[in-house]
Amino acid sequence: MTMPKNISTLIWSAVGGAVLCMVIGFTWGGWVTGGTSRTNSASAVRDAVVVALAPICVDRFKRQDDAAGKIAELTKASTWDRGNVVAKSGFATMPGAKDADSDVARACAEMLASPPTPKT
How far apart are alpha carbons 31 and 24 in whole angstroms? Predict the structure, then answer.
């Protein structure tokens, strides 16, 4: 087998093709680095925990005495302060935790202040 005379051109073409493949993969192909993947998965886990715990907080909030009055008080609070109102009430503190989870409190306050409308 004989080697081509212009092996340098073949090597640089292969390198250029590899670089082009990486550029296309990372920009349009959806490829991500390991760090980005870990960040995205941690964010997804956090969102799933909030989605799972917020309805528990809503249920606990609605079971208290004078729940309707407390919900009316919550809706009167400013939108950025509603999470703090729920956190201070203690219903966003899950069993075994020392402090209220601020993300759960915000989601709980949002669910309480604007209940879903039934589909017709």
Answer: 9
Which pTM does this prediction carry? 0.72
What torsion do the CA atoms of 11, 12, 17, 23 make, to the nearest 10 degrees? 130
At residue 12, the 3 state secondary structure works out as helix
Residue 100 burial by CB count (10 A; 0-12/13-18/19+): exposed, middle or buried? buried
For the record, the structure tokens of 34 come out as: 């390991």
Q: If pLDDT is split at 50, 70 and 90, which confidence band does 1 have? A: low
Give the Cα separation of 26 and 18 in Å (integer): 12
- Between CA 39 and CA 55 the distance in angstroms is 25
Task: Give the pair of three-digit tokens for residue 54.
Answer: 């917020």
- Residue 93's nearest CA partner among 64, 69, 67, 60 is 60
